[in-house]
Design goal:
Layout lengths: L2 H71 L4 E7 L7 H5 L1 H20 L10 E8 L1 H5 L5 H14 L3 E5 L6 H14 L4 E7 L6 H5 L9 E7 L6 H6 L3 E4 L28 H13 L37 E4 L14 H8 L5 H5 L17 H11 L48 E4 L1
Parallel strand pairs: 1-2, 1-4, 2-3, 4-5, 5-6
Antiparallel strand pairs: 7-8
Length: 440
């Protein structure tokens, strides 16, 4: 074989080897690309797996949070009962029986509410019932001859049930309205408040406020209007937009007639104030009870329960006859402070002096206590303190201007006698800030 032949074969081999090298380089490049894509996919998969585990953990956390929120939303569900006490009054029988009537009224009201709620879809027996009665105590008490009985009714009402409150809204004519609208605005948006019952049927002033709950054509299923006195005309037109109900025999269906004059022989423990009664009547006639034909005046006879008030005396011994009785914001009588010499107090306690004779007037012809002593001014001041050691039988709402007994526990506010104390419960922790003077 010659050299040229060998060279040709070598050239052929070089071409073949070049093709092999090119193929191998292409194959290696492809392998490198696929390997890089595989590594990237593995990395992404690892990230996805990690994110998936995070999402699963987050989902479990959110599910737990959602369950807790649902449980929280269902915790302590309640029904709110708002009563405008200025125009929705309990019947005479409850008021007449004082504290006992208050207990019975609160108990009966709750019973009626529960019975009514059972007729509504979704009600559960474990729902609590929150009752708030807002009223102008000063004005409302003037509807009754025996104010002390009315105050005792309020005490009994408030003590019957821990979520039941008869609340003094203040002396403004619209004070009860303002409090009720404020409470409704707050609780209507409260998810725990399942239903609201409103008793203020005679006050047309609620109409405008209630329209915000009637923006759709559907009946507002979270609000019930209680009709005691007949609905005011504007409220009657709006009432089909709400549930309505009546509690027969629980609330008065006619208002109270306020009289200007009292019988001259009226001989009861509480002397009714005449002028304030007239002003309250005018307030009612101009305000919420406009156009109502009012019913008879409530007159409670307490003579069988309390001793008669002593007749006014014109003698010089009547040293404590007042025409203005100071009261605190709860209506409790405030005894003016006494600055007595404690040595004189100790001495006078053993002398069996007639406190009423020397400080006011003694109504007893056969009184066995001393009427003959000559007392100095310091001794009279000391005798006032001695007299206040005995609790007034009329309680904290006594309106007898000649009364010399105590209307506040002598150990208040640190009485340690508890239920053994001779002074009634309302005569303890007395607010001594004067809110008004009652003219009698």
């Amino acid at each position: 074989m010659d050299v040229d032949g060998l060279r040709q074969q070598l050239d052929a081999i070089k071409v073949t080897d070049a093709e092999r090298v090119n193929f191998l380089e292409t194959l290696i490049g492809r392998i490198e690309l696929i390997t890089a894509e595989r590594d990237e996919a593995i990395t992404k998969l690892a990230h996805a797996d990690k994110f998936s585990k995070y999402l699963q953990t987050e989902i479990k956390h959110l599910e737990t949070k959602s369950r807790n929120m649902e449980m929280e939303m269902e915790r302590d569900p309640f029904v709110l009962v708002l009563i405008d006490g200025d125009n929705t009054k309990f019947t005479d029988d409850y008021i007449r029986r004082g504290a006992l009537g208050g207990h019975d009224a609160a108990r009966e009201l709750r019973k009626r509410i529960e019975s009514y709620m059972e007729t509504l879809e979704g009600f559960q027996p474990h729902w609590k019932i929150l009752v708030q009665v807002f009223a102008n105590f000063s004005g409302l008490s003037k509807c009754y001859h025996d104010k002390s009985t009315f105050w005792q009714f309020i005490l009994g009402f408030n003590k019957e049930y821990d979520l039941c409150g008869y609340i003094d809204a203040g002396n403004d004519k619209e004070a009860a309205d303002v409090n009720i609208k404020g409470a409704m605005g707050l609780f209507y948006r409260n998810v725990h408040c399942k239903h609201i019952l409103l008793a203020g049927s005679r006050d047309g002033g609620y109409t405008t406020y209630l329209r915000q709950y009637t923006l759709t054509n559907e009946v507002c299923k979270r609000l019930t209007l209680i009709e005691a006195l007949p609905f005011a005309a504007s409220l009657k037109d709006l009432s089909p937009k709400f549930f309505t109900t009546k509690f027969e025999g629980l609330f008065r269906d006619c208002d109270i007639q306020l009289r200007k004059d009292l019988p001259k022989d009226h001989n009861r423990p509480v002397t009714p104030p005449e002028t304030p009664r007239i002003s309250y009547a005018s307030t009612v006639s101009k305000g919420k009870s406009k156009g109502i034909e009012l019913g008879p005046l409530i007159d409670f006879d307490s003579s069988s329960r309390l001793p008669p008030s002593p007749p006014p005396s014109t003698s010089s011994s009547n040293r404590q006859q007042n025409s203005h009785i100071p009261r605190n914001r709860h209506g409790c009588r405030i005894d003016p402070p006494v600055h007595a010499d404690q040595k004189l107090v100790y001495q006078l306690k053993s002398k069996k002096l007639c406190n009423r004779y020397f400080l006011s007037s003694c109504p007893y012809e056969d009184c066995t206590h001393n009427h003959n002593a000559k007392l100095t001014d310091p001794e009279l001041e000391a005798l006032k303190q001695v007299a206040r050691l005995s609790p007034c039988p009329r309680g904290a709402w006594c309106e007898d201007p000649t009364c010399v007994a105590g209307h506040r526990c002598v150990q208040d506010p640190v009485c340690t006698r508890g239920s053994n104390c001779r002074f009634a419960e309302e005569m303890h922790n007395v607010d001594m800030k004067v809110a008004e003077f009652v003219t009698v």
